[in-house]
Design goal:
Elements: E1 2-8, H1 14-23, E2 31-38, E3 41-48, H2 51-54, H3 57-62, E4 67-73, E5 88-90, E6 96-104, H4 107-116, H5 127-142, H6 151-164, E7 167-175, E8 179-184, E9 193-199, E10 202-208, H7 211-216, E11 220-224, E12 229-234, E13 239-243, H8 255-260, E14 266-267, E15 270-271, H9 272-290, E16 298-301, H10 307-317, E17 320-321, E18 325-327, H11 340-350, E19 351-353, E20 362-367, H12 374-385, E21 390-395, H13 423-430, E22 434-437, H14 440-448, H15 460-463, H16 473-483, H17 485-491, H18 494-503
Parallel strand pairs: 16-17, 16-20, 20-21, 21-22
Antiparallel strand pairs: 1-4, 1-10, 2-3, 2-4, 5-6, 6-7, 7-8, 8-12, 9-10, 9-11, 12-13, 14-15, 18-19
């Protein structure tokens, strides 16, 4: 999961991209980067860390130009090297930079093709560099000089990219002295939206992962980029759109609405906030069906993203809603943090219980989802230590039993708490008196109501059905080998570095 942004403006874009990246910070807290274009020169700054830590005044002053792209990263393959921070750059042809959100499921095959057939060299293990080089190769194959390049040429290159690349991806690419192109995979799995802003000097355009970045910068949202579509904005501020996929199909990731996106975003015409409200209402109906004579005294959300669902849930149950946890906002999201020991420690650092809301009460804790179960287990224990008589748990999402392979750094199957377990076994593992999960049909209905034109969502982490149709058991085994905690611990240890150097 990452955040991307691209802006073509009439004045310097460095501050606007910086502000946009801070709004998208929830999509990536591992690394940040920005590249701007001024004439035929590119100015790049990227490093590990939050946006505010990566960009200092001296960097901002050097990021010149009225066109640029930016990125915030969560790594999905266990690598936290600053060398893999984005945007990436390739010299031939034209000088192209790219920022990417998603994951290519055929990246290994593409790497071999690039080096063997396309004669291109890759410097990192990132599939984003693969995507960049595929785009660069297809543009090079058109065989035109920079000043002869037309929108139809760029769209032809994106069409060829779609034919070669599999998986979920949304990207912005900047072609030096030409413009910015934003494109989305033919299944529309990862989100991306574009907008405009009228100024006295002319119209400025923006492409971003979520509409909140567009709103925050005072742009007007035009619409989401369609699955397989590309949007090209010239350096002069002209906009062109084209459907570049031969067979597009709209299957957006439903986990964006469960957890990833900000509630004030609109993704594929669906209000994330309203979708989460509906999740809470439907979950309450299930609880009433299973426990019509429940003894719940109070509903307490696990902050932050479960709050929206917890309030209508409490209202539907006729139970008090209370804030029972105070959150330290300087601790990253825990299910994506590397290493189980770090993850467990961070839960106690992130949340502190308000004892008065728990003492002597039967408490229903509401979470947006339960992934590893580490957070849930610690929080249930915190509730008991704060004096709760009984602790129940409700998840606004169904059991997460399968890994996500389209750009979310979700654990491997064996590290998911619901993998090969019944609901009762999960409840026992996290220490809850009972546990209720959302039904998959109710989750889909909660999102679908916001845009009835979408007939199918990517629900692979709940169902194990991968919409691209190319995810085999061998692929999942390879994903497990690079994503599990032991691999990440090795990646970040001195021993892992030594092994890497010896294998180089």
């Amino acid at each position: 999961m990452c955040g991307i942004i691209g802006i073509v403006a009439k004045t310097p874009v460095n501050q606007a991209i910086y502000d946009g990246l801070t709004v998208l910070q929830h999509r990536g807290q591992d690394a940040a980067g920005m590249v701007t274009c001024d004439g035929n020169k590119l100015y790049l700054r990227k490093d590990n860390g939050l946006v505010r830590d990566v960009f200092h005044t001296r960097h901002m002053l050097n990021l010149k130009g009225n066109m640029g792209i930016g990125h915030v990263r969560y790594p999905t393959a266990g690598c936290a090297s600053s060398a893999e921070a984005q945007p990436f750059y390739v010299n031939t042809p034209y000088g192209i930079t790219l920022a990417h959100n998603g994951n290519l499921t055929n990246a290994e095959t593409l790497k071999e093709d690039l080096m063997r057939d396309d004669l291109r060299h890759l410097n990192t293990n990132s599939d984003s560099e693969v995507l960049l080089n595929i785009l660069a190769h297809e543009l090079s194959a058109i065989g035109k000089l920079r000043n002869s390049l037309k929108p139809k040429d760029i769209f032809k290159a994106v069409n060829r990219l779609h034919q070669r690349c599999k998986g979920g991806y949304a990207a912005v690419a900047m072609i030096t002295e030409v413009g910015i192109v934003g494109f989305r995979d033919p299944n529309g799995i990862r989100p991306v939206v574009f907008g405009e802003r009228k100024t006295d000097s002319g119209t400025e355009y923006i492409i971003a992962s979520e509409s909140v970045a567009i709103d925050a910068l005072d742009f007007k949202r035009i619409r989401d980029i369609e699955p397989g579509e590309a949007v090209f904005i010239t350096l002069e501020g002209e906009i062109h759109t084209f459907q570049c996929s031969d067979n597009p199909s709209h299957n957006p990731c439903i986990f964006e609405h469960v957890y990833l996106a900000r509630p004030d975003s609109i993704i594929d015409g669906i209000s994330v906030y309203k979708a989460r409200l509906r999740m809470g209402e439907k979950l309450a109906r299930k609880i009433l069906k299973l426990y019509p004579k429940h003894d719940i005294d109070v509903v307490i959300p696990i902050p932050d993203s479960s709050r929206t669902a917890a309030l209508p849930l409490a209202n539907k149950l006729g139970v008090k809603y209370r804030e029972g946890f105070v959150k330290n906002r300087y601790i990253p999201r825990t299910f994506i943090m590397p290493g189980q020991s770090i993850r467990k420690k961070s839960v106690r650092q992130k949340l502190n219980a308000i004892g008065l809301e728990f003492k002597g009460k039967n408490v229903l804790l509401v979470d947006d989802s339960i992934v590893r179960g580490t957070t849930s287990r610690e929080i249930v224990q915190m509730a008991r230590e704060a004096g709760a008589k009984r602790v129940y748990v409700a998840s606004a999402a169904p059991p997460v039993r399968y890994p996500n392979v389209y750009g979310i750094d979700m654990p491997t199957a064996t590290e998911l708490i619901a993998y090969n377990k019944t609901v009762e076994e999960v409840a026992e593992t996290i220490g809850a008196d009972w546990l209720v999960y959302q039904d998959i049909k109710d989750l889909i209905a909660s999102a679908h109501r916001g845009n009835k034109k979408i007939t199918k969502f990517d629900t692979s982490c709940f169902t194990g059905e991968y919409v691209t149709g190319d995810v085999s058991s061998d692929y999942l085994a390879r994903v497990e080998s690079i994503r599990n905690d032991s691999a990440k611990d090795m990646e970040n240890s001195d021993e892992g570095l030594t092994d890497l150097m010896e294998n180089y």
